[in-house]
Please model this.
Amino acid sequence: MNEEYDVIVLGTGLTECILSGIMSVKGKKVLHMDRNPYYGAESASITPLEDLYKRFNLPGNPPESMGKGRDWNVDLVPKFLMANGQLVRMLLITQVTRYLDFKVIEGSYVYKGGKIFKVPSTETEALSSSLMGIFEKRRFRNFLIFVANFDENDPKTLEGIDPHKTSMRSIFQKFKLGQDVIDFTGHSLALYRTDDYLDLPCNEAINRIKLYSESLARYGKSPYLYPLYGLGELPQGFARLSAIYGGTYMLNKPIEEIIVENGKVVGVKSEGEIARCKQLICDPSYFKDRTKKIGQVIRVICVLSHPIQNTGDINSCQIIIPQNQVSRKHDIYVCMISFAHNVAAQGKYIAIASTTVETDNPEKEIKPALDLLEPIDQKFVSISDLLVPTDSGTDSQIFLSRSYDATTHFETTCDDIKNIYQRMTGTEFDFTEMERKQQDIFGDAAE
Amino acid sequence: MALRELKVCLLGDTGVGKSSIVWRFVEDSFDPNINPTIGASFMTKTVQHQNELHKFLIWDTAGQERFRALAPMYYRGSAAAIIVYDITKEDSFQTLKNWVKELRQHGPPNIVVAIAGNKCDISDAREVPEKDAKDYADSIHAIFVETSAKNAININEVFIEISKRIPVADAVAETPGRGFKLGRQASESRRMCC
Ligand SMILES: Cc1cc2nc3c(=O)[nH]c(=O)nc-3n(C[C@H](O)[C@H](O)[C@@H](O)COP(=O)(O)OP(=O)(O)OC[C@H]3O[C@@H](n4cnc5c(N)ncnc54)[C@H](O)[C@@H]3O)c2cc1C
Ligand SMILES: Nc1nc2c(ncn2[C@@H]2O[C@H](COP(=O)(O)OP(=O)(O)OP(=O)(O)O)[C@@H](O)[C@H]2O)c(=O)[nH]1
Ligand SMILES: [Mg+2]
Model:
């Protein structure tokens, strides 16, 4: 490792691995290290189960009822991929998708009055949903038809509203939708975390709902995808991409020092050796001094021996508890997956509840979600700081990623990647940058 | 005829001839000046075995193993692993045993293991006696052959032996835990998922 690199990357989280892959594909000489003996950093899937027990300082070994430890791959950060989202685009362009197998999440649910209901997102579903009364259903159906036809460039579809002026609140009023329907539309279809969108121009919200419907249309059951063996496969896939393009990988490397001279990074010291570099990418844990805390996220990993009640026994789902329903400012999310995704022993389910912390008793805040999951075989509670960089990297050439936030999706992660890319190269991120450029996979054509 | 996709991954020290073996098997050629692998990663070849077609999806390491940073993804879902050593390098035979351990730990439970003692065309320089390797392979129930990618000795045979050891397809038992590949076209993905 006593060499000179264009870019050194510290930490093998998803953000770092995608950036590493992009840089290698662009022809940069990349050295990628992690202090841990496994890939994924904060976005790892922990295996075997024994390691999860150790990580959360639970005494002893998992009980026999948990089955074989190696059958478990437990995500630390719960997220799903949107079928039409940016991460899926990155996977396709880089062909990293060939290393992965996916399943569709089988349903999306929303919480209302202590119970959960399937999120109706098509006209047919809306009409059969028990979430709404008969008149409300008709009004919601009209709203969905309006959204489906909506094209901001075609005045005929706008029914007299101005996409860039009319607020979303007025749109809901126009269709006479009640508070509950507004809640699930804004939070389960448009996927807003707060209610701030209500007073903004309706264009964005309507397009988000359209994207939800289009993603849903791709696979039918829900707009969300999940990779077999856990989310930890994603960073590994991009790390392989980086390696194929010449990136050097080292795990289990304690990082002793990030060497800065005259305000600019010049290298990294590990096990007494120095690797030199022009630019450095790392996750916040490698350079805490240059980050600040903007909040906290609580995540509770729950192992269950049963599917979540009132979901019709499906083996994966998402539940959104809109903030309004539980008098909060931030939504609470539950992501459930199971043995069917090769992440748990036969017959076991993993539900991860998460939300942005608002009080000094976060476990109480998340209780409405846990109540939906009972009985819980085992809980693993973590409260993590949300760190963001204070150094833009312009002078130091040190580019820090942000912590993974409470959202259960990769939108903000992809935004962070694009942002770091722009700061590193001075040019706006373009998806085609990621396209494989050599004949690297001979013999693999004509599928 | 039924087509089965079988993932096969290659393991072994750098320079033992992993890529050369794949290259010989897939393209039936040999390049004495082949570079240490970066870039090549994935090749396929379909062969007939009894009344089935076996499509081998062959994963070559991408250099991550050099500093012991091979991702578990590499072994995931592999039907077989070919562990290669160089018969003229005792060291490469010693590390082979570590690869076997690594596979036991991280590989799928029923993976078929094949051990290939490569470069048997230069047995003048031999450091590893065939019998030692054979005894070791037997002790772990692995397929064993000495190969030469250069002279095309026993290369096809390794894959034929692998085909023989793959359990007969059991259409009923195979379904749980099967996902689909994302495709550029939605309709295609849908077709594959159900
Ligand atoms: C449990 C759960 C909770 C979620 N909560 C939120 C949330 O609080 N806030 C939030 O913004 N998203 C939320 N999402 C959804 C998230 O937007 C998507 O999952 C998606 O963005 C992740 O896909 P991606 O990372 O592949 O691509 P992304 O980068 O996220 O998506 C590509 C583009 O599409 C937009 N987009 C993504 N999803 C939608 C949508 N449903 N409707 C309209 N536009 C969309 C994004 O803004 C982005 O510009 C949640 C998802 C789940 C499963
Ligand atoms: N004599 C002889 N040389 C061989 C044989 N197979 C490979 N070689 C040579 O051994 C060297 C290394 O071969 P590779 O196929 O690149 O080995 P590898 O295991 O893929 O190496 P890495 O990609 O670095 O891990 C090359 O110079 C080959 O020409 C063989 O059967 N006989
Ligand atoms: Mg090679």
Summary: Chain B touches chain A at residues 26-27, 38-45, 62-64, 66-69, 71-74, 76-77, 176-182, 184, 186, 189-190, 193 (CB under 8 Å).
